[in-house]
Amino acid sequence: MNRRYRKTVIAGNWKMNMTATETKKFAEELKKIMPRAKWCDTLICVPACNIQTAAKAFKDLRISVGAENVYFEEKGAYTGEISPAMLVDAGVKYVVIGHSERREYFAESDETVNKKVLKAFEYGITPIVCCGESLTQREQGITIDWIRQQIKIAFLNVPADKAAEAVIAYEPIWAIGTGKVATTEQAQEVCGAIRACIAEIYDEATAEAIRIQYGGSVSAGSAPELFAQPDIDGGLVGGASLKPDFGKIVCYNK
User: Fold this and answer.
1) Is-catalytic flag, 104?
2) Does the N terminus or the C terminus of the chain have fewer Cβ atoms within 10 A?
């Protein structure tokens, strides 16, 4: 990782887990093993009903709170959706957009991902833009082409200065929650291709500024080697972020 340009960013993604009560307990456990993280940006993306509880519980640990979804309209008859204004008012600074589970289970497309990215930037929320390939796509040798398409559409009409502030999370779908982890070489290859794609869309300066995470069964054991790669600037952590051992991932370089 090139720290001259980029600060490590480690994000937890709780998905549909943890009640508000459990969130408070988790924060207390985490405080016992994890110091206030100054060497990286740390955040945990939580279910919407936990956002305000998490913001208060994690404040002393310098952990920002993120959301797991946002809608691309500001208000209206969209039952069950969450507007960017609602997230900002609740204290959200980051939002996961385009996670493979959202795409698979809730029919999100590259086009809706783009709309959400644009709306998040409009409200000052940093998007964590997810991309990734299935096992079939990897076996067919189309991984890079697939990822490039996702990135190009996600950043359509996003100006360079905003794009530089984004976070991109590369998560091979076949490695999410399976215990399988892409090899260091595989992860670096795709993250390097993502950075090259950003350079094509914008310029080298924007590509050097944007932060790219690896996600997919990241653990305290795999983090040091993954995060040492020149184009991997941290991780999007799923299951491991539900345990206090998440602190060991944050402290990977200690």
Assistant:
1) no
2) C
**Of 68, 108, 133, 171, catalytic:** 171
What pLDDT, on the 0 to 100 scale, is given for residue 2?
53
| Annotated active-site residue in 99, 101, 108, 133 | 99
Task: Using a cut of 0.90, tell me whether the model's pTM lies above it.
Answer: yes
What's the whole-number mean pLDDT along residues 169-193?
90
The highest-level CATH class for domain 9-250 is: alpha beta
Which H, E and C letters describe the chain, residue by residue? CCCCCCCCEEEEECCCCCCHHHHHHHHHHHHHHCCCCCCCEEEEEECHHHHHHHHHHCHHHCEEEEECCCCCCCCCCCCCCCCHHHHHHHCCCEEEECCHHHHHHHCCCHHHHHHHHHHHHHCCCEEEEEECCCHHHHHCCCHHHHHHHHHHHHCCCCCHHHHCCCEEEECCHHHCCCCCCCCHHHHHHHHHHHHHHHHHHCCHHHHHHCEEEEECCCCCCCHHHHHCCCCCCEEEECHHHHCCCHHHHHCCCC
pLDDT of 3 over the 60 cut? no
Q: Give catalytic status of residue 28 as yes or no.
A: no
> How far are the Cα atoms of 35, 131, 253 from residue 150, in angstroms, in the given order?
36, 6, 31
